[in-house]
Amino acid sequence: MPLTTGELDRIRAELGWNLLNVGAEPYIGVAAVFSQVILPYLREGLDTTSATAVVASTSGAAASITLADATGVTLHSRVAVDVDDFLEMATVRAIAGNVVTVILKKAHPANYTVTLDGGLQQIRECLAALYVTQQQLNEDEGTGATKKVDEIEFYDSKSRSSLELLQAKQKHWRKELYRRLFGQGDYSLMGNGGSVGLY
Questions:
Q1: pTM of the model
Q2: Which residue of 8, 13, 117, 144 has the fewest C-beta atoms within 10 A of its own C-beta?
Q3: List of residues 6+ apart from 25 with CB closer than 8 A
Q4: Would you say 122 and 91 are in contact if contact means Cβ atoms under 8 Å apart?
Q5: Among candidate residues 37, 38, 27, the one with its CA nearest the CA of residue 195
Q6: What per-residue confidence (pLDDT) applies to 14?
């Protein structure tokens, strides 16, 4: 399954591009990178599901899970099991038909996703990290400037406030998302505040 429309919009926003529809072309310069390059050519790997419920194990336990489709899964493949707080990466230790054996620690209720490690999964990891960082920024907004109240004490140039650290983390993940999408470090396709659109 390719990136969803929502995931593409999130990538656009995180990389500094506007979220206007293609109909805005007469008014704004447009490069069709997202819809005509990333969407059809991103190295996806298998994106399937499993109905096998898994019980949590603090030290990790072998779990034989049945995949809806095991095309492309081989011994020693890395797979992402589930999403969000339930996500964990695992290595395929055995495979028989559509049944793969992996070591898992977290609980997984039936009908979770299983995705082969590859372009699609790596992009989703970047987006997940950016989402978490944005939530932390929202909670931290306005709390990182002053260190003490009774005696005003500011952070020195060597130590940074929690807000600055989160902003640096956000910048890191945006650059990582860009690097994984475009494989270059010059950020030539980064947006400029939304005045130009990539679609």
A1: 0.72
A2: 13
A3: none
A4: no
A5: 27
A6: 87
